[in-house]
Description:
The complex is a heterodimer.
Chain A: E1 2-11, E2 15-18, H1 19-25, H2 31-38, E3 42-45, H3 52-65, E4 76-80, H4 91-99, E5 106-110, H5 116-129, E6 135-142, H6 153-156, E7 162-171, E8 182-189, E9 197-198, E10 215-216, E11 222-223, E12 229-230, H7 232-254, E13 263-266, H8 271-281, H9 302-313, E14 321-328, E15 332-339
Parallel strand pairs in A: 4-5, 4-6, 13-14
Antiparallel strand pairs in A: 1-7, 2-3, 6-7, 8-15, 9-12, 10-11, 14-15
Chain B: H1 24-38, H2 44-49, H3 53-72
Amino acid sequence: MKASIAAIEYSLPETLLKNEELAARFGDWTPEKITDKTGVTERHIVKGDECASDLGVQACQKLFDSRACRRENIDFLLFCTQSPDYFLPTTACMVQDRLGLPTTCGALDFNLGCSGFVYGLGLAKGLIETDQAKNVLLVTAETYSKFIHENDRSVRTIFGDGAAATLIQAVHIGDEALDEPIGAFIYGTDGRGAKNLIVPVGGLRQRTCSGDEAHVDEFGNERASSNLYMNGGEIFSFSLRAVPEAVDRLLEAMRLHLEDIDLIVFHQANRYMLDHLRKKLKIPEGKFVVAMEHVGNTVSSTIPIVLSDAAASGRLKDGQRVMIVGFGVGYSWAATVLRWRMGCS
Amino acid sequence: MVLEMGTGTLREDQNVRNLEHWDSLKLLEVLALADELLHVQIDADRLAKCVTVGDILKLLEESTATKDLQQQV
């Protein structure tokens, strides 16, 4: 038995944050300039009482409504978020209850951002191909907006909230199959980058900060220690180092060349970085997906959202090889190649 | 080209933070150009601390020299 992605659905909160609103706040940037600089025109943002788990539940409900599978058949739930409902209990336990999944189901949270979807596939493949599970529900759900200061242009223009629910099933593949539905994995971790994308205060290392007032940085961005901080330059440098190396390692592990890959989907961090990486790796434009204009950077959901849309539009077809690379906060990164075959067993 | 000014109009002692188009994305563009044209990855934090055009040039020279040395070793 091999693990295979059978279905993907996603859910975005209703409230839209458009560039017009941001331009009105940040006077020197027009809406067009924001699109030009980030590749994002609008992003979806949760309301005050909405949590990542709510988005995750909605995405899962869409999956069940699409008849991709029955909730009674789910035997493992993997919930990837950096915005849990509580420190404890595990958000996945509460999602199991809200979705009415069987109490015989395993469930856990894991805390990753941009690399989360690819790590989640690795975990699901491990569970399925060791006969621990047959129907794994991988949920990626994030609400970075709750950490972001309203006057921090550097991150407010980029990040959007959202969740995706991916069903990974055990399938038989015949001897004639060319390669596995979910291929080899490349993983990477470099904690030296931890300080470059961080919410410094609020966790247990430093729960509160007395007199934590917002300060303004040299580019006019305002944030307090309990807000998200991103060092864009360092993240960019890291990506230029890590992503090409990960692609090379993955191709070597799978004994493939870039020409053998039909579609390449990187984590949708920002358009400028993606364009530069595409040129650096000499990937033809037609094979490379940039699709963040209407959702922004939804962290661990960027890749499943792209895959879902690409499959629906026909850009990604059954039988094609698609390379996915998640990279960012941590620093953490992971990559694999999928042999696309949607549909349920 | 990054600073959207005509060739030959920059002086080494010019303060980049005062230039019209200087913002956090410009840092990325300098990093990208260094990678694309010089095949070096310059230290983003050091770039962020640069005040003048001359500081940036010095950082580019040092990064290129380091890369050349590493390749020789």
